[in-house]
Design goal:
CATH architecture of the largest domain: 3-Layer(aba) Sandwich
Distance between the termini: 70 Å
Largest sheet: 7 strands, mixed
Number of domains: 2
CATH topology of the largest domain: Aldehyde Dehydrogenase, Chain A, domain 1
Number of strands: 24
Structural class: alpha/beta
Length: 493
Amino acid sequence: MTQTTDTPADGAEYEVDYPELALYIDGAWSQGAAGRTEPVIEPATGRELGRVPLVEPADLDRALAAAERGFRVWRDTPVEQRSAVLRKAAALIRSRAEEIGRVMTAEEGKPLRESVGEAQRAAALLEFNVEEGRRAHGRIIPSGPDETLSVVRVPVGPVAAFVPWNFPAGGPMRKIAAALSAGCSIIIKPSEETPGTSVLMTRCFEEAGLPAGVLNLVFGVPAEVSEHLIPSPTVRFVAFTGSIPVGKHLAQLAGSVMKPTGMELGGHAPVIVCEDADPVAAAQACARGKFANAGQVCTSPSRFYVHDSLYDRFVEAFVEASKAVKVGNGLAPGVAMGPMANERRRDGVHALVVDAEKRGARVLTGGQVPDGPGLFYPPTVLVDVPEDARILSEEPFGPVAPVLRFHDLDEAMERANGLPFGLAAYGFTHRADTANALVRGFEAGILSINHTGGSVPQAPSGGFKESGHGREGGAEGLEGYLVTKRVSHKMAI
């Protein structure tokens, strides 16, 4: 179907060829058994893009049976043939990045440039994992002359995966690429708010020749789906990206039946700007990182600790950079930040700002819900934020930046590590010894010094403490999808 969207700023119209939404089970597209659907709403305009089908228990049973059959086929397919299929899927995704990006922007809101880049990175992630899968070999251990002692790594089995809405291409691909490259089959439930992107990517796998049952795409009521799939004996590994409370719930479900899990959960990433840093360059880098995807990123910098001597210049530059961000429909040229993805997210962000103001914080820019259509919220900078403000202990997941002073590095590090989260952390310094102190001191799994760049396929990402366990990306990214066997082979007696 064709959906026309308006940019609030200029009234221009942008067309999106939104795909027909369906489930993909056992190599075939279908609707849910009971015909239940939910609307998919464009956050920039409030219009309905389409309706996503919701699975019933019978649909999930079909997906489980398909994943079990698909696993046996895919596991026994020679790695060269598996790699060829996955490389073809990656090439198709890369060639359709513009189409996928436009759909992603329509349903999630991020600027088109970010969406197209995400689709291209999804292809790159698949390509990297394919090569890691070719190297997922074991080893021979020295032993006696009449014995061969070896380690063999095999795919764990069918995977159940659950991902949120903020990265409609990258989120699902992290699970799909690792599972399929390791030789597993997968049932994946992306967000019902951003289903079109997953449908388009699944078509690429289908057209690349992926056998039926290896990749199964479902949508549904989250609790219904997880509580049906996770206890099933068919599922051997559970992969989840999302909030800490939901992650804990799914981990409990998996633990009750002794299923291994990979959990990438929320964070509240601290930034420490040390006294030797360039405050203007640091502020500009922080603004770029903060307002990417409207701050709806689990690794988004979200607590800014700035040395006293740099504080005023940093704040001035940060406010200037924030005011320069063009907000609007992500399909419009020049837009740097789109709307929030849904109403509950915008309401949650604004509630944190209101709470901080009530406790004495000052809003230097932003902080108000704009009039007009769309779920827009402006880049917002807070100062004089008291320690009891909710925004310092709750992940904002939006375009709000509280900026705080510190006196010495030990103090800043203690405050940075003071929450039970530990996903990402950032530091700015020109000194090698200070950089080393930051790397040693931060309790986080993803560290960036002098920039706020995101994850890359060739390196692992994951958290400390309540931010989860397991790693995605890099050589470590396939670990959860493989089982290690120790084999002792003696000469026949």
